[in-house]
Amino acid sequence: NAGVMQNPRHLVRRRGQEARLRCSPMKGHSHVYWYRQLPEEGLKFMVYLQKENIIDESGMPKERFSAEFPKEGPSILRIQQVVRGDSAAYFCASSPSGHSAGNEQFFGPGTRLTVL
Amino acid sequence: AQSVTQPDIHITVSEGASLELRCNYSYGATPYLFWYVQSPGQGLQLLLKYFSGDTLVQGIKGFEAEFKRSQSSFNLRKPSVHWSDAAEYFCAVGNNAGNMLTFGGGTRLMVKP
Questions:
Q1: Rounded CA gap, A95 and A89, in Å?
Q2: Inter-chain residue contact A59 with B97, CB threshold 8 Å
Q3: For B88, which residue in chain A has the nearest alpha carbon?
Q4: What is the C-alpha to C-alpha distance for residues A14 and A109, in angstroms, rounded to an integer?
Q5: Cα distance between residue B65 and residue B59, in whole Å
Q6: Number of C-alpha atoms within 13 angstroms, CB side, residue B65?
Q7: Angle ∠(A22,A25,A28) on CA atoms, nearest 5
Q8: Of the residues A54, A100, A104, B109, which has the maximum number of CB atoms within 10 A of its CB?
């Protein structure tokens, strides 16, 4: 059973370009979470999604960032018009059910975004 | 709002020595607590978790943690550290809705030969 998969592992963009980060949850998991880790910091929650629904986006910046988890295919975190401050590691996690309190989240290897 | 504090940013111990990493949390209800380890350039691996019951929790790689409600703490321990334990360790608290984890800032562990 493959774990959470993220691609690309490394992404370089110039300021003003778009970044698309993909996450395939573990088989049987229908809940996806995105976190951002800035250099020398802990992980900060961004958004929680189920298939075709955004459940909680309280950690998402108000502009330029969006996320989706379509019925088919991976979850996508999209950053438009990237700026240098977006440089970070972006981690995706999945769980079988978000409503069962305390469910373990399984993390992917992350995508390291560098904005030049 | 929930929060997690890891007071020690860096810790260095000698191989074979015991280890304790501190974690303090703030949460209004019974917390769901986790310790994760992150090796350089890698994702996070779960070491152990506490939901309820016995306050001393055993995890993988010889780690254990003790939940102390009176001190709002969930410290991670290992009796004898191995060089391969050098990594960054994150404490996290989950909310009742199960929709997010709040992480501490992490403690970077270095192991001296």
A1: 20
A2: no
A3: A42
A4: 23
A5: 8
A6: 30
A7: 155
A8: B109
Q: List the structure tokens of A9.
A: 């592992």
CB contacts, 8 Å: A112 with chain B? 41
**Mean pLDDT rounded to a whole number for chain B:** 92
Q: Is some CB atom of chain B closer than 8 A to the CB atom of A104?
A: yes
A69-100 pLDDT tens trace: 999 999 999 999 999 999 999 999 998 875 55
pLDDT digits (tens, 9 = 90+) for B68-77: 999 999 999 9
Q: Tell me the C-alpha to C-alpha distance, in Å, between residue B79 and each of A17, A101, B8, B14, B21.
A: 49, 31, 19, 12, 12
| Biggest CA-to-CA distance, chain B | 44
Local structure of B60: helix, strand or coil: helix
Interface check A55 vs B, CB under 8 A: yes
CA distance B7 to B5: 6
How many beta-carbon pairs below 8 A join chains A and B?
A: 70
Strands A53-56, A65-68: pairing is unpaired
Q: What is the pLDDT of residue A100?
A: 54
- Distance between A50 CA and the closest CA of chain B, angstroms: 10
Question: A109 and B42: CB-CB below 8 Å?
Answer: yes
pLDDT score, position B76: 98
H or E element in which residue A28 lies? none
Return the SS3 of A83.
coil
